[in-house]
Amino acid sequence: MTACPRCSNTNATVFHEGKEGEELIWTLFGCPDCHYHWRDSEPEESINPAKRKAVFQMDTSNPDRYHLILPVRE
Amino acid sequence: MNKQSEISIEVAKKVGSLRDFLDLLESKGQFITWPDEVMPEPDIRNILVAAGDDDKNGPAILFDKIKGYPGKRMVAGVHGSFSNIATLLGYPLGTPIRDLFYDIVGRWTTEAPQLPRIAPDKAPIHEVRIEENFNLFDLLPLYRINAMDGGFYIGKANVVSRDPHDPDNFGKQNVGIYRIQPHGPDTFTLMSVPVHDMGRHMLAAEMDDVPLKIAVMLGNHPAMAMFAATPIGYDESEYAYAAGMMGAPIALTESGNGLDIQAEGEMVIEAEYIHGERQYEGPFGEFPGSYSGVRRAPVFKITGISHRKNPIFENIYIGKGWTEHDTLIGLNTSAPIYAVLKKEFPEVEAVNALYQHGLTAIISVKNRFAGFAKSVALRALGTPHGLVYLKNLIMVDADVDPFDLNQVMWALSVRTRASDIQVLDNMAGIMIDPAAVIPGMGHHLIIDATTHMAPEPIGGDVEIVRRPAGQEIDDLSQIIKSMQKEARK
User: Fold this and answer.
1) Domain chopping of chain B, boundaries
2) Nearest CA in chain B to A52
3) I need a labelling partner for B6 at 20 to 30 A (CA). Which of A20, B91, B239, B290 fits?
4) Neighbouring C-beta atoms of residue B142, cutoff 10 Å
5) Within an 8 Å CB–CB cutoff, is residue B40 touching chain A?
6) B200 and B194 Cβ atoms separated by less than 8 Å
7) Fold of domain B345-449
8) Which pLDDT tens digit goes with each residue over A11-66?
9) Cβ separation of A46 and B41 shorter than 8 Å?
10) For the domain bounded by B6-314, which CATH number is listed?
């Protein structure tokens, strides 16, 4: 399990590994909580929580603050 | 009736697929293969931004050395410049945008579309079939389009869905471009809201508790890519418009889950809507040049995939303009507004809604009487696209070319008074306008930059300079250009 750069939860897992022959080029992770996906080869502004702008961070403990784009049938 | 030229029909006959169009672009120097290895981030977006800066002549670019994706191919910028659009329409490189606009409105028809059927077992798109162990992150050379996007987006797919209340109606079968965020190896979210045709399909399926199957087409016929983003009527077929515009066949076949798809597309991802499921989606760098926030969006689960051998993943750069998105949909946003207005107001000359999907647009009109242009503007706001997208509308006279911003600025400079500016506030707007105080609400601004006419006061004792024009001036321009060319040698 890996920490998500966006929501800081620690449930992220490996989704894919990019290889050239036997050489590992990058690892692609996905967070099952906030659904952020990232590659460990990306620039820090995307994947380093300390370098990411605060406005792009997420708090998954409060889902209602994120609007539904399509209403759900009751 | 389609009024296209013989040359354009000959060109259209050669283009049955994305691959055909890439060959045609290559023959014009409008398609290149990036020679070096690239990292998915940030190399691909940097190269595409640089290519997109040249809205007149930027080429399509194929990447086939993406580190970590050996053997995979990705192309973007296919509709990235007006010269690429001109090539599709059978015109020379550098054809003025205004000429392309008049060509497209002349072809605006769904009469007798050529949509031949190919049996699924003969269709190139089904050359390779996958029915288990799906992994989008392995299948596609995905990359982060803008640095703060919430995922690796698919930005140029054509998504097919049927109306659950009328599933056999070909016209109500929708083909639209909706941004797709892969979530799991076999799941993705899709951004469609209730006003979209596909949003209607999802709501109807959920309401009646019936399945909604969709086909996500990647690597499409270049005319389909344009029409999937075109605002047309709910019961009108994007396939019919695209084939109508081309005046040539676009072959269809059936997806594994029973939808009409392009037979010569690169790939189709078949999926089913998971009722009631919503997952975090976004942010995504959208066409207004700003990130849409995180929202909760509908979720789909993959049920099958078909693709051609050695498929090309076609994607797009979109964000702060100018980008391929602006060129892809600009003329196809302008044309349907023109088509509606022209029926009721034959005085309308042209519509330029190239800017941010029409958030700013310019309409030229022969002014009949004082205030007339404002009424035409109000009608434009009542068109399907105008309702929420036409935020800033500039009305100019017929002697002003709305595609020539030097002329438009002249009209704004010398033909406007304070009383020519009307603001309708607290109206419907788009959700992702970064200027909106309340997302989904906003203003309509009309600037009437047409000539003042009686009975309103005309003002000072002025006459407009008659600018010499015509063949003599065109010939002289050519002579001057030739002399300059000589002088530079």
Assistant:
1) 6-314, 345-449
2) B148
3) B239
4) 26
5) yes
6) yes
7) UbiD C-terminal domain-like (3.40.1670)
8) 999 999 999 999 999 999 999 999 999 999 999 999 999 999 999 999 999 999 99
9) yes
10) 2.30.110.10
